[in-house]
Amino acid sequence: MNSFINVTSEIGKLKKVLLHRPGQEVENLVPEYLGRLLFDDIPYLKIARQEHDIFAQVLRENGVEVLYLEELAAESIEDENIKKEFIDEFLYESGITSEALKEALSDYLLSKTTRDMIDTVMAGVRKEEIKIKEAHSLSELMMDEYPFYLDPMPNLYFTRDPGASIGSGLTINRMRTEARRRETLFLKYIHKYHKFFKNTETPLWYDRTMPFAIEGGDELVLSDKVLAIGCSERTSAEAIEIVAKNLFDAGTSFEKILVFEIPKCRAFMHLDTVFTMVDYDKFTIHPGIEGPLSVYEITRGANNNLNFRHTTCSLEETLSKALNIPSVELIKCGGGDLIIAGREQWNDGSNTLAIAPGVVVTYERNYVTNEILDKKGIKVLSIPSSELSRGRGGPRCMSMPLERENLK
Ligand SMILES: NC(=O)NCCC[C@H](N)C(=O)O
């Protein structure tokens, strides 16, 4: 049976991608909760949307079919029973324990069209939006200062992280932080109920119910044989092992998982904050990551076990070996200049989205890195990014490829 997913590289011509157009969830960001919601500043929604629309338009103009998470999610739960199942699960995962509140929120959500309901759960529900009929408990009676019944999910426009396409399957991830954990519910329902997936067989290499954290920004498909996964602030060694085991057990083309141990801090967040592939032999990199790296290789072992090997090669050597080519070129964000690299890295200068070999989408504000890429023969399609960049993610973070052409 066919799968809806086909991603066997980071650079093969992009055919289908999943995005989320920033919505009211961004307007529910307030300074008090920025840190917990993983933002450093508040984007101006109107402009963020214009920028995001340009991103989608650039993709379309280059032959990419753009699908929206919010639309697919709504289409998946149109059936009344599925909608109720979704709401129950969503409220449970949002920590709603009081029966009266659960009822009030369910009624409120069910009174909307499915698409409005999806937008509402994404945006969050403020306390003033609903009335509880009658308080049955002290906690219902005592309204504390916290403004939301359901927290907003402002990170949804980084569709890269809740799931990842690998080969013909998906990982639906367990997000490290509470702030992003419910995001993966949408993918669960899409994978289970959407018509695109219904008559296909799309295996899951990882499932959101598993206890170990993994995020898509750490998952890079270097080729149909080699995966790179960052063991990072967001992704654990245990989850990587499970993904490796499932890929090998299913008899996929993947032969090796390279586990990059990267510093566990926000500046390095995910592996795709540190490097992204832009052409057959070219990568953009965070200048801080060049030195000898701790990399672990996972391969198939005897009796369905995994083999592990620790190496400490340079990034260059590791990547050229992985791709089976004589050498790779590492293009430093900001040309390696301390100030420029610092500034452009802060705005995701190394986080490019390749839409074909040697063709990338980047933020236009990273003009020094963009010029360097251009001089190296890379076609750079840059998009405005004053507001989108405030969420600390670039074009790769804002996109989840569903289908790429296989490389010849
Ligand atoms: N792959 C990525 O690096 N995604 C960027 C996610 C940014 C978001 N504010 C977060 O902290 O999760």
TrEMBL record:
A GO cellular component annotation in the UniProt record: cytoplasm
One BP term from GO: L-arginine deiminase pathway
GO molecular function: arginine deiminase activity
Compartments reported by the entry: Cytoplasm
Catalytic reaction list: L-arginine + H2O = L-citrulline + NH4(+)
Domain of life: Bacteria
EC number(s) given by UniProt: 3.5.3.6
Primary site of residence: cytoplasm
Top-level enzyme category: hydrolase
Keywords: Arginine metabolism, Cytoplasm, Hydrolase
Active site: 397 (amidino-cysteine intermediate)
Keyword hit for ATP-binding: no
Pathway given in the UniProt record: Amino-acid degradation; L-arginine degradation via ADI pathway; carbamoyl phosphate from L-arginine: step 1/2
UniProt similarity note: Belongs to the arginine deiminase family.
PANTHER family, per database record: ARGININE DEIMINASE
UniProt name for this protein: Arginine deiminase
